[in-house]
Amino acid sequence: MRVSVLFAAVVALAPAPAAAQSDAVQALVGAWEISNADRDRACGVTFRAEATAGGFRLDLDRAACAAAFPPLKDVAAWSLVGDDTVRLVDGKGQVLFEFTEVESGLYESLRPGQPLTFLQTAAAAGPPARTPEQVAGDWHVVRGGGAPICTLTLLTAPAGNDDFALRVKPGCDRSLVRFGLAAWQMDRGELLLKSSRGQTWRFEDSAGAWQRIPEGAEPMMLVKP
Questions:
Q1: Running along the chain, 225 residues long, what does each successive block of 10 average in pLDDT?
Q2: Are strands 106-109 and 200-206 parallel, antiparallel or unpaired?
Q3: Which residues touch 225 (CB under 8 Å, ≥6 apart)?
Q4: Please, are residues 96 and 75 in contact by the beta-carbon 8 Å criterion?
Q5: Is residue 33 part of a domain?
Q6: Cα(99)–Cα(110) distance, rounded to whole angstroms?
Q7: Count of domains observed in the chain
Q8: CATH number of domain containing 153
Q9: Does 77 reside within a domain?
């Protein structure tokens, strides 16, 4: 009887089978994205299942990722801790990032001296947010699918408070003149047009154009000339 009890205790304390750990690791293998809250800084990383010192191998563009997230210049491996924590470590085993799952497929890391950083699959992240340099240039303002009612030039010259300057070309619709367009900004992947009185119009990316949100009775879009 004592032998049976001792055997049961040993079984209860034994680590989870290697197959279970392997399955959990395999579920994380693939392409991921590390980004900040605004997603204007991002790094693509691929998790592999091949064992290496400190955990498992990963692939990334080290120079580009280190420019976005300096600790990644030393990253050497990734590992899974428990069921919901992904660690990135350097060659000495020191933890650079510790991502905890906050919802299915989305992890976040907040360590001393670091901003809030996210980890999600590349598929869930979607295409990277467009940068101000990519958005700058001439745009037609179109209302309700009709002819352009105004043309704007979005500039990259700073206008204070993370805003950029813009230029309104002559001949704009009176409603836009009354709004008093004065500046623009990118905010978490969305385009903001701001008036001189502090009002804001918000637009979301729509297949290369920008759709005003909420849409309202008369949809408004920014489209390339």
A1: 42 43 89 89 94 95 95 96 94 96 92 92 79 92 90 93 92 91 89 92 90 86 94
A2: unpaired
A3: 138, 139, 140, 151
A4: yes
A5: yes
A6: 8
A7: 2
A8: 2.40.128.10
A9: yes
